[in-house]
Amino acid sequence: MSDADAARTAAEAFAERFGRQPEGVWAAPGRVNVIGEHTDYNGGFVLPVALPHTTRAAVARRADGVLALASVQHPGEDVEVPVADLAPGRPGGWAGYPAGVVHALADHAAGGLSVLVDGDVPSGAGLSSSAALSCSVALAVRDLLGLDLDADALVDVARRAENDFVGAPTGVLDQSASVLCTAGHALFFDTRDGTREQVPLDLAAAGLALLVVDTGTTHDHAEGGYRDRRRECEEAAARLGVPLLREVDDVTALDALDDGTPEGAVRLRRARHVVTEDARVLEVVAALREDADPRAVGPVLTAGHVSLRDDFEVSVPLVDACVDAALAAGAHGARMVGGGFGGSVVALVDAAAVDAVGAAVTERFAREAAPAPRTFVVVPSAGARRLA
Ligand code: GLA
Fold first, then answer.
1. Rounded to the nearest whole angstrom, what is the distance from the C-alpha of residue 343 to the centroid of ligand 1?
2. Which of helix, strand or coil describes residue 51?
3. Which of 16, 51, 338, 374 could crosslink 30 through cysteines, CB 3.0-4.6 Å?
4. How far apart are CA 68 and CA 22, in angstroms?
């Protein structure tokens, strides 16, 4: 859908729900991470691209101090709550994300807001539909209320909404990607100090495509292994005497983690994933910068998957089967994306082989008695923006 069509559709839904026109419509995308998984909360590197799929927020100010929230994707789950009554966890559900943003900016938003969201980022697919929602509303509130917030501050507002209000222990990858990505580029982002570089990524020119497979298996960050992995990484860093695993760049330094106990062996594997994953991000960025054959990136992606599967242990059998099927059908590389425990796979494939790889994966799912996955090709798209 074009930005103009998306803006019109959201404005119409707003008018139907609230009986007036919105003052504007804003959009923020989901993301797929090319490489750099579970590095963000360790101060490491990430390399996401923005999806063409976005969440749109149509917003208008009110004068009665009420926050009114409605979502096209969650009919019958409208929320109306005085801004002054917002508190972590109240409201919950989908409304927690926009409410968390308004809560973070409540000093400025006391007059109230009406917010209607509409979007097409697959949810529960590891493609950051939550960040798209938070970031679209954060940008809308900033613009409408004329707040002096730069891009980094916006990212921080969206992250705090998710961490402190919703209670999802995410790092900063998803919100950074949604706000900072630009069309035609991957965002090389250093989560330790926020430095960034837009790396041109024109795979079509090289006859390649990034194929995303939404496996349809759901993940659960809030209470799943994500929290455990964060803790294990913090423990490993503490034992090594560094504030963050990012500070370690020599894997042999990790041997000290293995004290002969089963816990020590786990700690070593977790830390080894993080340290080698940071190195893989640098390897991919170097390949793209040097204008080398981007096919060389493929094996690095696959190595990232093996590390997430065996060392970090955040993959699941259906996701592994999906990666294997893509590689067997000729993908140059494939890996799970996002937090893990289900979600999506990204594969680097020849443009001419997109259909064949998609068919092979679908056939493999049928053999596994799993519902057919959804596949699409990602063109690196724009970050958060005002549409109307
Ligand atoms: C989820 C989190 C991110 C990041 C990834 C793993 O998407 O929200 O902050 O930790 O998992 O790379």
1. 12
2. strand
3. 51
4. 13
Instruction: Give the residue ranges of the chain where pLDDT is below 70.
Output: 219-223
pLDDT at res. 87: 98
What pLDDT was estimated at residue 222? 39
* 129 and 160 in a common domain: yes
Q: Which CATH number covers residue 40?
A: 3.30.230.10
Known catalytic residue at 324: no
Distance between CA atoms of residues 247 and 257, nearest Å: 15
CA of 16 to the centre of ligand 1 (A): 36
Residue 209 and residue 125 share a domain: no
- Give the distance between the most distant pair of CA atoms in the chain: 67
User: What pLDDT score does 223 carry?
Assistant: 59
The tally of domains found in the chain comes to: 2
Q: Are 172 and 165 in contact (CB under 8 A)?
A: no
- Check whether residue 108 and residue 227 sit in a common domain: no
**Sequence letter at residue 176:** S
The pLDDT, as a whole number, for residue 290 is 83
Phi-psi region of 195 (alpha: psi -120 to 50; beta: other; left: phi over 0): beta
pTM of the model: 0.97
Per-residue model confidence (pLDDT) at position 218: 79
Question: Which structural domain, as residue segments, surrounds residue 53?
Answer: 3-197+382-386
Residues 240 and 276 in one domain: yes
- Residues with beta carbon inside 6 Å of ligand 1? 37-38, 40-41, 170-171, 173-174, 338-339
User: Looking at 272-359, which runs of residues are DSSP E strands?
Assistant: 333-336, 344-350
Peptide bond before 91: cis, by omega within 30 degrees of 0?
A: yes
Q: What pLDDT does 292 receive?
A: 80
